[in-house]
Design brief:
Helices cover about 50% and strands about 10% of the residues. It is built from 12 helices and 5 strands. The chain has a 5-stranded mixed sheet, sandwiched between helices. α2 crosses α4 and α7 (about 135-145) packs across α11 (about 250-260). The protein is globular, with a radius of gyration of 23 Å. The model has no long low-confidence stretch (mean pLDDT about 90).
């Protein structure tokens, strides 16, 4: 438990990272000027003021009221309320931080977004893994992630292994969440962040989808493992071992440790953010 800090110290750090409700005058003024230009442009195009007002976000409204002298409410909402979810509901706290970051990503300064990432990593380290590098603890950590984040984490792994990686569009992936390519090799990766074991039907369906394509092999990451015994997913894959690899949670974490270093979980949020950025920068994204 070498990473453990005193509870009071952790909460003090988190308060700084999460931020209180506040205003950033320079940012509010810039945004106010942007809103004025938007309204003016709308008028020139014959757009009614009421129609423009329907498109305003809550941040837009707070800026207009504050700059107009009609409100003293801070324009940026704070996130310290997430501390009320700790220590008992750390996953819910992480979900709240993730939703807040998504909503405010276009508004918050880069430093504030980095601070939120640090807050998430600190919550995971202190309240979920508790400083442990035990593989089972890290499997639990990943099981608490949204399914999409498992795909980004898998992409980070294959990128580190020397592949060019593409995380496919959600709901339209055709049984391939991640496509990893390098000279002479193409791998389709399907990610299942399920609490239950992956059944044989899922494995056989995946095999059928990529068999006809020019793919070296397919990999299914099943964080809770795969069915064994009668109609076993593991037996089905074993008969096609040249083309299908099943990777359970322990295997996935072991691969992460070997390729990303054993401390990857301490900067997980930045790792995911980096991969999201890489995917957004891909042509056609």
């Amino acid at each position: 438990m070498a990473y453990m800090r005193a509870e009071g110290e952790v909460r003090t750090i988190l308060r700084e990272f999460l931020g209180h409700s506040r205003s950033l005058p320079w940012q509010d003024q810039n945004h106010f000027r942007f809103l004025k230009m938007t309204v003016q442009s709308g008028r020139e195009k014959g757009v009614e003021a009421t129609e423009v007002s329907r498109t305003l976000s809550e941040y837009d409204r707070r800026v207009l009221l504050r700059i107009g002298g009609k409100s003293s409410v801070p324009t940026l909402e704070g996130l310290t309320w997430a501390l009320d979810l700790l220590p008992h509901w750390p996953q819910e706290a992480l979900q709240g931080i993730g939703a807040y970051t998504l909503a405010q990503a276009q508004i918050l300064p880069d430093l504030a977004i980095s601070a939120l990432a640090d807050a998430s990593d600190l919550i995971r380290a202190h309240y979920i893994t508790q400083g442990s590098e035990d593989i089972e603890k890290l499997v639990e950590l990943i099981l608490g992630l949204p399914s999409r984040d498992l795909e980004y984490l898998a992409a980070s792994l294959y990128r580190k292994m020397g592949f060019d990686v593409e995380v496919t569009e959600a709901q339209k992936d055709g049984g391939r969440d991640v496509i990893a390519t390098r000279p002479g090799e193409v791998i389709f990766v399907e990610c299942k962040n399920w609490s239950g074991k992956v059944p044989v039907e899922t494995v056989s369906s995946f095999a059928g989808r990529f068999t006809m394509e020019n793919v070296t092999r397919g990999v299914i990451i099943g964080m809770s493992g795969f069915t064994t015994g009668y109609r076993a997913a593991t037996e089905f894959a074993a008969r096609r071992s040249a083309r299908i690899t099943l990777m359970d949670g322990v295997g996935f974490v072991t691969n992460l440790n070997e390729n990303l270093g054993s401390k990857w979980h301490l900067h997980l949020e930045r790792l995911l953010a980096s991969e999201r950025g890489s995917q957004s920068a891909r042509p056609g994204s």
